[in-house]
Protein backbone atom coordinates (compact mmCIF):
# COMPACT_ATOMS: atom_id res chain seq x y z
CA UNK A 1 0.00 0.00 0.00
CA UNK A 2 1.24 3.50 -0.78
CA UNK A 3 1.97 6.01 1.93
CA UNK A 4 -1.02 7.58 3.63
CA UNK A 5 -0.75 11.26 4.52
CA UNK A 6 -2.83 12.79 7.31
CA UNK A 7 -3.72 16.48 7.41
CA UNK A 8 -6.35 18.81 8.84
CA UNK A 9 -9.78 18.72 7.23
CA UNK A 10 -10.65 21.60 4.92
CA UNK A 11 -14.09 22.81 3.79
CA UNK A 12 -13.11 21.72 0.28
CA UNK A 13 -12.92 18.08 1.52
CA UNK A 14 -16.62 17.97 2.27
CA UNK A 15 -17.92 17.03 -1.16
CA UNK A 16 -15.47 14.20 -1.74
CA UNK A 17 -16.32 12.65 1.64
CA UNK A 18 -20.07 13.13 1.53
CA UNK A 19 -20.07 11.49 -1.94
CA UNK A 20 -18.68 8.20 -0.54
CA UNK A 21 -19.78 8.04 3.11
CA UNK A 22 -22.98 6.07 2.46
CA UNK A 23 -21.07 3.63 0.25
CA UNK A 24 -18.41 3.16 2.94
CA UNK A 25 -21.23 2.22 5.36
CA UNK A 26 -22.55 -0.50 3.07
CA UNK A 27 -25.37 1.63 1.68
CA UNK A 28 -26.69 2.85 5.04
CA UNK A 29 -27.73 6.50 4.82
CA UNK A 30 -25.13 8.26 6.97
CA UNK A 31 -24.55 11.52 5.07
CA UNK A 32 -27.08 13.47 7.16
CA UNK A 33 -24.92 12.88 10.24
CA UNK A 34 -22.04 14.79 8.67
CA UNK A 35 -23.00 18.36 7.75
CA UNK A 36 -20.42 20.66 6.17
CA UNK A 37 -20.23 22.79 9.32
CA UNK A 38 -17.81 20.24 10.82
CA UNK A 39 -15.35 20.88 8.00
CA UNK A 40 -15.62 24.64 8.52
CA UNK A 41 -15.74 25.08 12.30
CA UNK A 42 -13.76 22.12 13.70
CA UNK A 43 -10.66 21.98 11.51
CA UNK A 44 -8.13 21.93 14.40
CA UNK A 45 -9.54 18.59 15.60
CA UNK A 46 -10.65 17.02 12.32
CA UNK A 47 -8.33 15.10 10.02
CA UNK A 48 -8.27 13.64 6.53
CA UNK A 49 -6.19 10.64 5.41
CA UNK A 50 -5.13 10.61 1.75
CA UNK A 51 -3.39 8.06 -0.42
CA UNK A 52 -2.33 9.08 -3.93
CA UNK A 53 -4.53 12.19 -3.65
CA UNK A 54 -7.64 10.18 -2.78
CA UNK A 55 -9.43 10.47 0.56
CA UNK A 56 -9.19 7.09 2.30
CA UNK A 57 -10.20 8.07 5.82
CA UNK A 58 -11.27 10.85 8.13
CA UNK A 59 -12.02 11.67 11.73
CA UNK A 60 -14.28 14.57 12.65
CA UNK A 61 -14.26 15.80 16.23
CA UNK A 62 -14.25 18.85 18.44
CA UNK A 63 -13.56 20.24 21.90
CA UNK A 64 -16.70 20.45 24.00
CA UNK A 65 -18.01 23.97 24.43
CA UNK A 66 -19.69 22.89 27.68
CA UNK A 67 -16.87 20.84 29.21
CA UNK A 68 -13.61 22.48 28.11
CA UNK A 69 -11.43 19.55 29.19
CA UNK A 70 -13.39 17.08 27.06
CA UNK A 71 -13.21 16.36 23.36
CA UNK A 72 -15.74 14.45 21.29
CA UNK A 73 -15.24 12.26 18.24
CA UNK A 74 -18.34 12.74 16.13
CA UNK A 75 -17.63 10.66 13.04
CA UNK A 76 -14.83 8.47 11.69
CA UNK A 77 -14.63 6.63 8.41
CA UNK A 78 -12.10 4.50 6.56
CA UNK A 79 -12.36 3.38 2.94
CA UNK A 80 -13.16 -0.36 2.90
CA UNK A 81 -9.92 -1.17 1.06
CA UNK A 82 -7.88 0.55 3.80
CA UNK A 83 -9.52 -1.11 6.81
CA UNK A 84 -7.68 -3.41 9.24
CA UNK A 85 -4.34 -1.77 8.53
CA UNK A 86 -4.21 0.64 11.46
CA UNK A 87 -5.52 3.75 9.69
CA UNK A 88 -8.45 4.34 12.08
CA UNK A 89 -6.03 3.97 15.00
CA UNK A 90 -3.68 6.49 13.43
CA UNK A 91 -6.54 8.98 12.85
CA UNK A 92 -7.63 8.60 16.48
CA UNK A 93 -4.06 9.16 17.65
CA UNK A 94 -3.90 12.40 15.65
CA UNK A 95 -7.19 13.45 17.26
CA UNK A 96 -5.93 12.55 20.75
CA UNK A 97 -2.76 14.61 20.21
CA UNK A 98 -4.76 17.62 18.99
CA UNK A 99 -7.19 17.34 21.91
CA UNK A 100 -4.35 17.10 24.44
CA UNK A 101 -2.65 20.13 22.89
CA UNK A 102 -5.91 22.03 23.41
CA UNK A 103 -5.99 21.04 27.11
CA UNK A 104 -8.44 18.14 26.96
CA UNK A 105 -8.15 15.33 29.46
CA UNK A 106 -10.99 13.10 28.22
CA UNK A 107 -12.26 11.99 24.83
CA UNK A 108 -15.84 10.82 24.40
CA UNK A 109 -17.71 9.14 21.57
CA UNK A 110 -20.96 7.29 21.00
CA UNK A 111 -21.81 4.20 18.97
CA UNK A 112 -24.75 1.91 18.39
CA UNK A 113 -25.01 -1.21 20.57
CA UNK A 114 -25.38 -3.36 17.44
CA UNK A 115 -22.13 -2.08 15.92
CA UNK A 116 -19.87 -4.80 17.31
CA UNK A 117 -16.91 -3.71 15.18
CA UNK A 118 -17.05 -0.18 16.58
CA UNK A 119 -17.41 -1.42 20.14
CA UNK A 120 -14.43 -3.74 19.75
CA UNK A 121 -12.32 -1.02 18.12
CA UNK A 122 -13.03 1.50 20.87
CA UNK A 123 -12.19 -1.00 23.57
CA UNK A 124 -8.88 -1.79 21.83
CA UNK A 125 -8.18 1.95 21.72
CA UNK A 126 -8.56 2.15 25.51
CA UNK A 127 -12.11 3.49 25.72
CA UNK A 128 -14.46 2.41 28.52
CA UNK A 129 -18.24 2.16 28.14
CA UNK A 130 -20.10 4.30 30.66
CA UNK A 131 -22.53 2.49 32.94
CA UNK A 132 -25.92 3.26 31.47
CA UNK A 133 -27.97 1.09 33.79
CA UNK A 134 -28.69 -1.55 31.13
CA UNK A 135 -26.64 -4.14 29.23
CA UNK A 136 -26.89 -5.20 25.60
CA UNK A 137 -24.86 -8.33 24.80
CA UNK A 138 -22.74 -7.60 27.87
CA UNK A 139 -22.04 -3.96 26.93
CA UNK A 140 -23.39 -1.07 29.02
CA UNK A 141 -25.84 1.09 27.08
CA UNK A 142 -27.90 4.22 27.68
CA UNK A 143 -31.47 3.46 26.71
CA UNK A 144 -33.10 6.08 24.46
CA UNK A 145 -29.95 8.24 24.36
CA UNK A 146 -30.72 9.49 20.84
CA UNK A 147 -34.50 9.32 21.17
CA UNK A 148 -37.12 6.62 21.52
CA UNK A 149 -35.63 3.24 20.62
CA UNK A 150 -32.21 4.76 19.86
CA UNK A 151 -29.99 3.21 22.54
CA UNK A 152 -26.27 4.04 22.48
CA UNK A 153 -22.96 2.98 23.97
CA UNK A 154 -21.26 6.01 25.51
CA UNK A 155 -17.49 5.67 25.52
CA UNK A 156 -14.84 7.73 27.30
CA UNK A 157 -11.07 7.62 27.41
CA UNK A 158 -8.74 9.53 29.71
CA UNK A 159 -5.87 11.21 27.92
CA UNK A 160 -2.37 11.06 29.34
CA UNK A 161 -1.60 14.71 29.91
CA UNK A 162 1.80 15.27 31.40
CA UNK A 163 1.90 17.33 34.57
CA UNK A 164 4.24 20.27 34.15
From TrEMBL:
Keyword Transferase attached: yes
The keyword Transferase appears for this protein: yes
Record-linked CDD domains: NAT_SF
Domain N-acetyltransferase: 4-148
UniProt xrefs under Gene3D superfamilies: 3.40.630.30
UniProt keyword terms in alphabetical order: Transferase
Gene Ontology MF: a single term: acyltransferase activity, transferring groups other than amino-acyl groups
Protein name as it appears in the record: Acetyltransferase YpeA
Organism: mine drainage metagenome
Amino acid sequence: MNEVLIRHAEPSDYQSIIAVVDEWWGGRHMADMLPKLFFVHFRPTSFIAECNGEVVGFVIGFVSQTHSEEAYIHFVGVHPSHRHGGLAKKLYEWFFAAAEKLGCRVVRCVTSPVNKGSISFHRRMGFTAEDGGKLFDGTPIVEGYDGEGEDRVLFFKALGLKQG
